[in-house]
Amino acid sequence: MRIHTPFPYVPNHDADAPLKRLRYALVLLAVVIFAGALGYHLLSHLNYLDSFYMAITTLFTVGFRELGEVNARTKIFTIFYLIVGLGVATYAISNLTALLLEGDLRGYLMERRMQKRLDDLKDHVIVCGFGKMGFQAAWELKKAGVPFVIIEQDETKGRSPRFAGELILYGNAMDELILQRAGIQSAKGLITALTTDADNVLVTLTVKQLRPNLPVVARSAKLGTERQLKAAGADHIVSPYEIGGRRMAGLLLKPEMMSFFDIVLQQEQFELGLERITIAAGSPLVGQTLREARLRHATGSLLVGLVHPGAGLRFNPSGDERFQAGDELLIMGPADALANLTRLARAEMTRQ
Fold first, then answer.
1. Residue environment code for 229-252, b if the CB has 16+ CB neighbours within 10 A, otherwise e
2. Residue 20: pLDDT above 80?
3. What is the β-pairing status of strands 189-192 and 236-238?
4. I want to staple 305 with a disulfide (CB 3.0 to 4.6 A). Which of 20, 215, 256, 330 is the partner?
5. Which residues pair with 302 in a beta bridge?
């Protein structure tokens, strides 16, 4: 379930300043009230309850009657107590009013709520850059139900109603602190779709320094920059112009094939998906041949390809191919069939 909160919020560098200011004012006010109560207790010989009553009613000028002995000392004390106390009370009340009216306290509470959501994130995707490509990538993640965090430097972006309540951090994606706050240590992948290839290279380098094994998908704006991104550590490189041109030609040369890929990619429309699943060591599939496993009969999914550890992808493997622990299966089918084979490959069916 998604919690919709009025994000994005641009955090203040001194996020605790509103509460610190309010806390300081309230402590100062409490000290003044305590000092007044102590003064009335010593000068007017009142008990503790009456002393605090006199201190509070005198400070806020709502006193009904004076208690205890009224002499020159109590009158002088009351004069100085009012001068000092009213100044402190005015300062405390003005700070509280400013926090409520100017929105500092609301912003602080929003920031704390946002940080709690960031701390609770696991297996999410970090999207660096909220331009056209980053927007579309984030939208695909949202439709798939995958949690994500957006990092964007331009504070004017991210106001789309489509992403109301989503986590958006405004800052430099090349900053290690921003990446740490976005939960890079618990993320399952990162997409860098910044405007320039140089920025994408720097983001990739920074990410690989913080977490070398994190999969990174990088955008390549210009042809010929793939080598730099690959050298920086990008696991996958996407060139929108190359992909767009290839698709345009494919729609004319092989329209049936392009329609097939559309069916696979648009899972929400056709309920057909394509996934890559790893066989666990305790899975009952280990040691069986494809013919013996009868995956289509047992799970309802279709095996498209097979990858043995250290080998390449083999499409349409033969029935004599034997499964091993660590094999990766490229399977296709409806969502429930994919879930069945996933449980079987991860040895979850044997425990049920």
1. bbebbbbebbbeeeeeeeeeeeee
2. no
3. unpaired
4. 330
5. 332
